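Help needed: design a sequence for this.
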């Protein structure tokens, strides 16, 4: 796979440094472009959490397209160094917060405000996406009232997840990649 690139916005055309090995789950340009076509102009001034940051490709794309801020969580030291490099290379580090740490610990902390988008794309076939989704559901204040949780997995990993505060509202398939979209349950919203 070639190194990921930024598709649109202020960093358009820049190729990111890749993380060697299989410690990250890279997104293809085709899937990333489809994702941001779905998000459309709603990404403008949004807050974005790239939960398993890797190269930072998705969060940097969000910043390049006008997101107000992006927070990246990455546990792997070498991936974190590449993430920091890519943020600087794309000149978006002033709107980014990069945290070297455990995604699950981060999800359990109280946040000042909820994120508009939470992107979950952990290493494959380990059930990590389910654990992350359950933690978002448990600590729902991490998601803004009209926010979305977006999960990127391989189709064979897909299963129905019992959630209290989140509901699945869309699924998109792109070959060996599945994007699953969740939002807060209607009854969970203030004045809902």
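Sure. Designed sequence:
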């Amino acid at each position: 796979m070639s190194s990921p690139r930024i598709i649109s916005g202020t960093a358009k055309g820049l190729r990111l440094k890749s993380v060697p090995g299989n410690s990250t789950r890279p997104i293809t340009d085709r899937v990333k472009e489809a994702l941001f076509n779905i998000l459309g102009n709603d990404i403008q001034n949004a807050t974005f959490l790239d939960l398993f940051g890797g190269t930072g490709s998705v969060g940097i794309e969000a910043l390049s397209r006008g997101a107000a801020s992006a927070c990246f969580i990455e546990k792997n030291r070498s991936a974190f160094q590449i993430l920091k490099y890519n943020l600087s290379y794309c000149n978006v580090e002033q709107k980014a917060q990069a945290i070297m740490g455990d995604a699950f610990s981060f999800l359990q902390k109280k946040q000042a405000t909820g994120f508009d988008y939470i992107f979950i794309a952990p290493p494959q076939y380990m059930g990590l996406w389910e654990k992350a989704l359950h933690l978002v559901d448990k600590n729902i204040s991490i998601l803004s009232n009209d926010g979305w949780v977006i999960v990127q997995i391989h189709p064979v990993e897909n299963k129905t997840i019992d959630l209290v505060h989140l509901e699945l509202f869309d699924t998109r398939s792109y070959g060996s990649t599945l994007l699953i979209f969740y939002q807060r349950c209607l009854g969970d919203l203030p004045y809902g």
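Residues 43-188 form a domain with the Rossmann fold fold (CATH 3.40.50.150).
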